[in-house]
């Protein structure tokens, strides 16, 4: 396969999908800018803030991307690059983009609340409680894992730590200036250009002022930062940092594409399709669980219905941010596969678990980017820094999302004192950070992490289920949501079943029980959804009969 041909075909498919299938999904959802979004009706200057489309896209893309569309696709090449590319393209267009956009718009139509709230309104309170417990647990795990990953990265690469801190300072200044001149179109363009230039300069500056701290100190610093990012106005830190950081990934994508067009690197990876990997298992369901971000990821529904939906200035932005943002991530996932196609399968298998997928990605893409005239070492360092920067966006976004989840659980409490305490953003964030500290102190996340690949896809299936019920109750044909929903339930439930059996046989009973519990949770929510639709049908038939009489 010629890499230039692969890139061109992928770009044509994704752009065509945006303007055709994206338009179709928008029409099915009844997107209408005459509908006022929650960011305008509930504007509070903290979470609900009407925001320019490029900034919301930058925040959303930076939040959903992280390291997911890099790690998953690189590992999935163990089954062959052909099935990986096919699933990424089909999954990204017909599964992921639909999942992200529908989750986002469902939230917009429900006061910018999370999928958990939408479940309560469409399926019932029991469904909401189950979903919130599941999503809160997932987010806490992600916070703990990414805090650990970032802390270790900062310890091993002090220059990355200094550049990251400089990024945060720059983001605060950018947010302040942008708010000061929010009514000026030209001021936003000028500050964006200056901000992006300074961000890239700080990468260079960071090499001269490395910050050397111990692992435990970095964990404390990161969790304090996550707390601050969660409680402060979204326009002050989270939004501008994600927006500026997104240009790191845009730059990475552009540099990679230009490098491929200039050098047209040789494809050394064979085109064999591997049905069973000795390290991973069978291609179904493992491939569809491994490639989550880039194809479809349940975590995206938490971002789409958590922070992003509260910032959309108009409904049509959901197509740009939700559908378009997912397709950009899909293209990044394709670049991740390409990054390991330039090495032989023998080298890939040898290095995958010894060096890790991020190192493979950085080395492979660094070799490609070096074609534009910079050293391969510098190019690889830039790629690694970009991955680390996006890991930090995942950390702060997840903390805010976990805070929303915690608050929404207490919104329905009748006890006013308990409700007031539980919905307080400082108390809620403190509980999130405390839970993360407990998890980090036990170190259990190293053992529990593998199960959340399956849980993440289950989360996607549950989000699609919620959207399907909402659409059906509003008399909208939901086949474009139901088909990916059924497939994702098949993937997630099969994976959890295999995971439970395997761990039970290996004597890892805790993981087996967890997998079984998630399996049961999915079945219960399916049953609740079915009953909800049955009750809705009964109400309609009763109403029609009464009207006939």
Structure in words:
With 549 residues, the chain is mainly alpha-helical. The protein has a single domain, classed as Hydantoin permease (Orthogonal Bundle), CATH 1.10.4160. The chain is built from 23 helices and 2 strands. A two-stranded antiparallel sheet has the order 1-2. Strand 1 and strand 2 form a beta hairpin. It is globular, with a radius of gyration of 23 Å. Belongs to the peptide transporter carbon starvation (CstA) (TC 2.A.114) family. Keywords: Cell membrane, Membrane, Transmembrane, Transmembrane helix. One of its GO terms (biological process) is cellular response to starvation. This is Carbon starvation protein A.
* CATH secondary-structure class: Mainly Alpha
CATH topology: Hydantoin permease
Strand content: under 5%
Q: Give the overall silhouette.
A: globular
Family: Belongs to the peptide transporter carbon starvation (CstA) (TC 2.A.114) family.
Protein name: Carbon starvation protein A
Main location: membrane
Keywords: Cell membrane, Membrane, Transmembrane, Transmembrane helix
SSE arrangement:
Layout lengths: L2 H27 L8 H4 L11 H13 L2 H9 L4 H28 L6 H8 L2 H32 L1 H23 L4 H22 L8 H17 L6 H26 L12 E2 L3 E2 H8 L7 H7 L12 H25 L3 H8 L4 H13 L6 H36 L4 H7 L2 H18 L2 H4 L2 H23 L5 H27 L3 H40 L1
Antiparallel strand pairs: 1-2
Helix pairs in contact: 1-5, 1-14, 3-11, 3-14, 3-17, 4-14, 4-16, 5-13, 5-14, 5-21, 5-22, 6-7, 6-21, 7-8, 7-10, 7-17, 7-19, 7-23, 8-9, 8-11, 9-11, 10-17, 10-19, 11-16, 11-17, 12-22, 13-21, 14-16, 16-17, 17-18, 17-19, 21-22, 21-23, 22-23
């Amino acid at each position: 396969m010629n890499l230039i041909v692969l890139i061109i075909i992928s770009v044509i498919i994704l752009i065509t999908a945006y303007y055709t299938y994206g338009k179709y999904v928008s029409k099915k959802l009844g997107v209408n800018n005459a509908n006022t979004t929650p960011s305008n009706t509930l504007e509070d200057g903290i979470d609900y803030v009407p925001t320019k489309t490029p900034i919301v896209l930058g925040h959303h893309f930076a939040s959903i991307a992280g390291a997911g569309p890099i790690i998953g696709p690189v590992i999935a090449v163990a089954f062959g690059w052909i099935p990986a590319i096919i699933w990424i393209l089909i999954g990204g267009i017909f599964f992921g983009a639909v999942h992200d956009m529908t989750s986002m718009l469902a939230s917009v139509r429900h006061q910018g609340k999370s999928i958990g709230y939408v479940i309560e309104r469409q399926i019932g309170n029991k469904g909401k409680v189950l979903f919130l417990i599941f999503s809160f647990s997932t987010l806490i795990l992600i916070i703990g894992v990414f805090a650990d990953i970032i802390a270790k990265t900062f310890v091993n690469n002090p220059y990355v730590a200094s550049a990251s801190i400089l990024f945060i300072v720059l983001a605060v200044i950018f947010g302040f200036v942008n708010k000061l001149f929010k009514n000026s179109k030209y001021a936003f363009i000028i500050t964006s250009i200056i901000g992006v230039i300074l961000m890239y300069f700080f990468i260079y500056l960071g090499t001269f002022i490395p910050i050397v701290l111990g692992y435990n100190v970095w964990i404390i610093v990161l969790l304090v930062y996550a707390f601050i990012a969660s409680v402060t106005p979204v326009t002050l830190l989270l939004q501008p940092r994600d927006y500026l950081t997104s240009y790191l990934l845009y730059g990475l994508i552009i540099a990679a594409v230009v490098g491929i067009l200039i050098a047209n690197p040789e494809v050394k990876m064979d085109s064999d399709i591997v049905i069973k990997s000795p390290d991973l298992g069978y291609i179904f369901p493992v491939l569809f669980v491994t490639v989550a971000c880039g194809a479809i990821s349940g975590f995206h529904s938490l971002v789409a219905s958590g922070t992003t939906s509260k910032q959309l200035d108009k409904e049509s932005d959901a197509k740009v941010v939700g559908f378009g943002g997912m397709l950009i991530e899909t293209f990044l996932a394709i670049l991740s596969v390409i990054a390991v196609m330039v090495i032989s399968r023998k080298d890939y298998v040898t290095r995958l678990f010894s060096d890790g997928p991020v190192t493979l990605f950085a080395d492979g893409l660094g070799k490609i980017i070096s074609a534009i005239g910079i050293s391969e070492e510098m190019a690889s360092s830039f790629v690694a820094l970009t991955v680390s920067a996006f890991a930090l966006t995942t950390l702060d976004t997840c903390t805010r999302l976990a805070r929303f989840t915690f608050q929404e659980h207490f919104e329905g409490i009748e006890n006013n004192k308990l409700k007031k305490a539980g919905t307080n953003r400082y108390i809620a964030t403190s509980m999130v950070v405390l839970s993360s500290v407990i998890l980090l102190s036990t170190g259990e996340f190293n053992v529990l992490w593998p199960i959340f690949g399956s849980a993440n896809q289950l989360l996607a299936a549950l989000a699609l289920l919620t959207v399907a019920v909402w659409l059906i109750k509003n008399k909208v044909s939901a086949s474009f949501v139901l088909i990916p929903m059924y497939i994702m339930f098949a993937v997630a439930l099969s994976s959890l079943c295999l995971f439970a059996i395997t761990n039970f046989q290996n004597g890892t009973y805790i993981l087996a029980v967890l997998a079984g519990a998630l399996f049961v949770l999915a079945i219960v929510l399916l049953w609740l959804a079915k009953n909800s639709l049955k009750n809705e049908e009964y109400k309609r038939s009763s109403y029609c009969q009464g009207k006939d009489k």
